[in-house]
Amino acid sequence: MSDEDEPTTSNENPAPTGPPDRVMILFMGGRHEHAITSIQRYAPDAVHIVTSDDFREQYVRRLNDWSKKYEFRKGTVQSVNDLFESTSVDSLFAKAFEIIPHEYEQTGNITPSRWYVGLTGGTMHMAAVATMLTNLLNATAFYVIRPSDGSAVMPNRHVLEFPSLSAMSLATRIVKTDVELLMEEGTGKISDLSQKSNIPKLLFHKMINHNLLVVDGSGEEWALTPIGHRCFSTIMSGAMYGQLKFIEEMKIREEEANAEAANEEQNHIYFG
């Protein structure tokens, strides 16, 4: 195996230092231009690629070159040999999930909510797998668009971000007055937010874990993230708020009904 095939490695399970790495996972097909745009947009600490065996050698070489040019840690190139078979979805998932232990071995500290998953390249079902992977990891999905007028793609203008389903679901559980407060202020002291809002401490930490909010190094200041702004803007847009709130309420009712049914069944078994 050549040096190009080998991902950049470090000591196994090193002691975590600093914030967790921002990892990018790109699902790739024949076109590769969007990968460069993605790297320029996010400046990741490490990049991995998921593709088919047909393109493996090309992306091993490109990832090696890109890692040197854009100064990120070279990740792995994961490839499948059954892309157009019925088994391809399972294979793509299996290969993508191999990235997780690799990252832990490299840094000893992984936070998938800081990860980015590209939906642009490859086939439609690769994009579907990438989307599901994003939601399972609670990562950020993104898509690079090509301007219809044929102009050059700009990293800061032509990359669309999509919040995870879990982030959207959590956003709908926050009462409207608190959402309005978060949107209006955008940033501030955590102590002030706890006095002005009705957001419980547990919910506040969940919002951080779902990348809706970020806290500075001192642990005293909070700020709304771009994903948080997008989630709250979406759910506050007229009828959208009511629709999403209704869906979330229906989910809660279903969970409560299932729990009640399970409890009745247990009582029946116990008491006869």
Give a short summary of the structure.
The protein has 272 residues and is α/β, with parallel strands linked by helices.
Mind telling me the C-alpha Rg?
21 Å
N→C terminal distance: 66 Å
Beta-strand share of residues: 15-25%
Give the strand line-up of the largest sheet.
3-2-1-4-5-6
Determine the mean pLDDT. 86
Examine the coordinates and then state which fold CATH places here, giving the name of the CATH topology of the largest domain: Rossmann fold
Output the helix-strand order: EHEHEHHEHEEHHEHHEEHH
Structure overview:
This protein is α/β, with parallel strands linked by helices and 272 residues long. The protein folds into two domains: 3-162, Hypothetical protein VC1899 like domain (Restriction endonuclease-like) (Rossmann fold), CATH 3.40.50; 163-272, Arc Repressor Mutant, subunit A (Orthogonal Bundle), CATH 1.10.10. Helix content is 50%, strand content 15%. It contains eleven helices and nine strands. The chain has helices spanning 33-42, 56-70, 88-97, 99-107, 124-137, 165-172, 176-185, 190-196, 201-209, 226-235, 239-271, and strands spanning 23-27, 46-52, 73-80, 116-118, 140-144, 159-162, 187-189, 213-215, 221-224. Strands 3-2-1-4-5-6 form a six-stranded mixed beta sheet, with helices on both faces. The chain has a three-stranded antiparallel beta sheet with strand order 7-9-8. Helix 5 (124-137) links the parallel strand 4 (116-118) and strand 5 (140-144). Helix 3 (88-97) packs across helix 5 (124-137) and helix 6 (165-172) crosses helix 10. The longest helix is centred in the last third of the chain and has 33 residues, at 239-271. It is globular and about 55 Å long. The N and C termini lie far apart (66 Å). The mean pLDDT is 86.
